[in-house]
Amino acid sequence: MKKVKTGDDSDRPPPSGDQAGQSTNKQKNLSSQDQGSDKAEANSVISRLKELETRLADDLPIDTQRINDMKNAIANGEYQVDAESIANKMIDFESSLKK
């Protein structure tokens, strides 16, 4: 009777000596290279985010008086929400995303 090969290598002995070591070393080298690449990419992203944060902070003036006025109006119940205006702006925003 002929033995039919099924693709299952369970009868094959595991690699020994140099073969086993080479496979493990290759995996370790690839893994450490991937980690180094990932770290470099993460550092690049972090650096870019910090640069953008600085630029935004410099470009956008903060009107602390207006902020305090709005806080007081909200706290006193004097702030009126224009629901129609907000709804229209939301619709405009959604429409711009579809283009």
Provide an overview of this structure.
It contains three helices and no strands. The protein has helices at residues 18-59, 64-75, 83-98. With 99 residues, it is an all-alpha fold. The radius of gyration is 31 Å and the shape is elongated. Helix content is 71%, strand content 0%. The model has no long low-confidence stretch (mean pLDDT 79). The protein has two domains: 25-60; 62-99, no CATH class.
What's the structural blueprint in terms of helices and strands?
Layout: H1 18-59, H2 64-75, H3 83-98
Distance between the termini: 68 Å
C-alpha Rg (nearest Å): 31 Å
Oligomer: single chain
> Could you tell me the number of beta strands?
0
| Helix and strand run | HHH
Please outline what is shown here.
The protein contains three helices and no strands. The protein is an all-alpha fold and 99 residues long.
List keywords for this structure.
3 helices; single chain; 99 residues; mainly alpha; 71% helix; elongated; 2 domains
